Amino acid sequence: MNFDQLNPRLSCLFLEGTPEIVTQAFHDLNRDMNSKFVHVFLDKLERYATKPDRALFLARYQERFIGFACIINYSPPPENVAKTSIELLKTFACSTGLMVLPEFRRQGVASGLVRCWEKWAAEKSRNGVWLVTRKMAQWYWYHFHYSVHGIVTSKGTKKNILIKGFPKKFHTETEPNILHIA
To answer: What pTM was estimated for this model as a whole?
Structure first.
């Protein structure tokens, strides 16, 4: 029996990514990645850790980075989206990546990272968060109340556009503490 399964919640630290920790995060997180895309991943981590219109959040457990999430203040909506959707999505932040190493999944790490996105977007006065996903729509709906706002087809693959609007007053009492490292 795997004893980790007995405690489904992992106590980890959520950090806002900075240029100083990107190299270690990249080293810890790229192991399962297709070697053709590793340089793209490093570039993304660096951009999200340095540009003021976006954020990189990292989950660290026992001095090792085990997950990341990226969000941007504004991203153009996918092609072929209705005009009314385009206007709505302009007011929302856009999540552009979420990953947790396989051995740390189902322990609350991704949930903490999603809450980091939401807190960041609310602090930036965005009306909510939107994202595009191929497989995880039900997970976002069940755990975070994201709803399907549309479907796009890219290279023959159908993907869901998910949104979550924020109430006028966004509550942060239950949000994870994000450590800002300078």
So the answer is: 0.84
